[in-house]
Amino acid sequence: MHLSVLLFAVQSLGAFALAVGFWVAFRRFGRARWSSVAWGGLTFLVAQALRLPALTLLTFAARSTGLALDAEGEFALNLAVLSLSAGLFEEFSRYGVMRWGASHVREPREATMFGAGHGGVEAILLVGIGSLSNLLGLG
Length: 139
What we know:
The protein is mostly helical. Helices cover 85% and strands 0% of the residues. The protein has one domain. The chain has helices at residues 3-30, 34-65, 71-100, 108-135.
């Protein structure tokens, strides 16, 4: 077995196991609600469902300007746009979900569980499924 196959398998399983393991442990010992995990995960999904089409539109708009950048300039622009858009979309989706859906997330244990849901779903989707697709030769 190649080392890369083993590492992809470990990454994929680790993302799933660590996220779910934290949720179960914190639910048991922190006595937080499962709904906080669900609302946190939903927040990540909502943010990305809004952000990805916006980035696509922004890409088309940027290409239509004819702006020519070298590789370093393109990297810097992508870094700035992707970082800022992630922050903006995730914060506004967190605000909306916590304002109108997850109104019970006001104390530290529920907020921790909410954050673990957001980060856990993000890790599972980006690291876990990304590694799994590489492992299966789909990526």
